[in-house]
């Protein structure tokens, strides 16, 4: 992988020289206080053994082969290239290089301006509000930021029995014809967010989940959800079931795998025939502390 790195050290502008071209470029960074350089091969900053980005402690053998602490441990301090001991001598020059490398967020092309010391940008990606989310509509391959996804989803609004409008704090009635579809999309107009209610048919009943299609960025907020359903089988004396989830999961892509936790189970005896299911759902935005 090729990339551009920016040194954060103070230098005179005449020292800032571009070395090569790159596909991961910061661009326009040459001012009086910053010098930038391009690195042809960002992989040179990864452990050559496990390929994970190198961080603080880097070790070398007498021949100058380098390894991360995890690999030194796994290899019992024997260099895989030359069999000499490795894990005692630090490679301080490389440690200094790693510290000086600042990379942009992988979503910089989409507008994120955050920068990170090398290796930390991938941790940020999970919570970056510019991270790509996948359209929850069936047979649609669109991906985009959560805001773009909401606008894009309008093209699916006419698909009947599948998408609902709602507002935070208000109940919406959601109807499933389980023989035809197992997920519905709920569109919150004011915040411009998509939520998906999914049903998974299992031997004892149906598992219901509610998720928000968004990265886990703080600016999006947190949501709780309340679900209730009334039994179709009127012979059951207490025929209403309710479920409250204090935190709605935020996901960037729908999964069709049966969840292991955070689901609402509607037992089979509640709706004989197991073909249709009516749920009342209220999603609320939690107050930020
Ligand atoms: Zn390693
Ligand atoms: Zn070696
Ligand atoms: Zn970002
Ligand atoms: Zn779509």
From TrEMBL:
Pathway recorded for this protein: Protein modification; protein ubiquitination
Q: Which ranges carry the SIAH-type domain?
A: 100-158
Catalysed reaction(s) here are: S-ubiquitinyl-[E2 ubiquitin-conjugating enzyme]-L-cysteine + [acceptor protein]-L-lysine = [E2 ubiquitin-conjugating enzyme]-L-cysteine + N(6)-ubiquitinyl-[acceptor protein]-L-lysine
> What GO biological process terms are annotated to this protein in UniProt?
protein ubiquitination
Query: How would you classify this enzyme at the top EC level?
Result: transferase
| Superkingdom of the organism of origin | Eukaryota
Q: Which residues form the signal peptide?
A: none
Query: Which residues does the annotated region (Disordered) include?
Result: 1-30
Q: What SUPFAM superfamilies would the database entry show?
A: TRAF domain-like
Tell me which UniProt keywords the record has, alphabetically.
Answer: Metal-binding, Transferase, Ubl conjugation pathway, Zinc, Zinc-finger
- Enzyme nomenclature, EC number: 2.3.2.27
Q: Which GO terms describe its molecular function?
A: ubiquitin protein ligase activity; zinc ion binding
Q: Where is the composition biased (Low complexity)?
A: 10-28
Q: What does this protein do?
A: E3 ubiquitin-protein ligase that mediates ubiquitination and subsequent proteasomal degradation of target proteins. E3 ubiquitin ligases accept ubiquitin from an E2 ubiquitin-conjugating enzyme in the form of a thioester and then directly transfers the ubiquitin to targeted substrates. It probably triggers the ubiquitin-mediated degradation of different substrates.
In terms of PANTHER family, this protein maps to:
E3 UBIQUITIN-PROTEIN LIGASE SINA-LIKE 4, RING-TYPE E3 UBIQUITIN TRANSFERASE
Q: Which family does it belong to?
A: Belongs to the SINA (Seven in absentia) family.
* Name of the protein: RING-type E3 ubiquitin transferase
Q: Which gene encodes it?
A: BnaA05g11490D
């Amino acid at each position: 992988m090729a990339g551009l790195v920016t040194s954060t050290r103070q230098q005179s502008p005449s020292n800032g020289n571009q070395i090569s071209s790159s596909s991961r470029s910061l661009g326009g960074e040459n001012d009086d206080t910053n010098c930038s350089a391009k690195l042809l091969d960002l992989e040179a900053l990864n452990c050559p053994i496990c390929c994970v980005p190198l961080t603080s402690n880097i070790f070398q053998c007498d021949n100058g082969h380098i390894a991360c602490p995890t690999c030194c441990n796994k290899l019992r301090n024997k260099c895989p290239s030359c069999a000499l001991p490795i894990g005692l001598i630090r490679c301080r020059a490389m440690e200094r290089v790693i510290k000086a490398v600042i990379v942009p967020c992988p979503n910089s092309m989409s507008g994120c301006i955050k920068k990170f010391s090398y290796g930390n940008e991938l941790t940020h990606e999970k919570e970056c509000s510019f991270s790509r989310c996948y359209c929850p509509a069936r047979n649609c391959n669109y991906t985009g930021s959560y805001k773009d996804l909401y606008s894009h989803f309008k093209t699916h609004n006419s698909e009947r029995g599948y998408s609902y409008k709602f507002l935070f704090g208000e109940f919406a009635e959601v109807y499933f014809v389980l023989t035809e579809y197992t997920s519905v999309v709920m569109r919150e107009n004011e915040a411009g967010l998509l939520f998906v209610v999914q049903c998974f048919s299992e031997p004892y009943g149906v598992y219901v989940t509610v998720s928000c299609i968004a990265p886990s960025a703080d600016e999006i907020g947190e949501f709780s959800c309340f679900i209730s359903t009334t039994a179709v089988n009127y012979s059951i004396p207490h025929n209403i079931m309710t479920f409250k989830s204090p935190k709605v999961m935020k996901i960037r892509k729908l999964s069709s795998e049966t969840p292991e936790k955070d689901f609402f189970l509607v037992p089979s005896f509640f709706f004989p025939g197991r073909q249709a299911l009516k749920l009342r759902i209220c999603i609320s935005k939690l107050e930020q502390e």
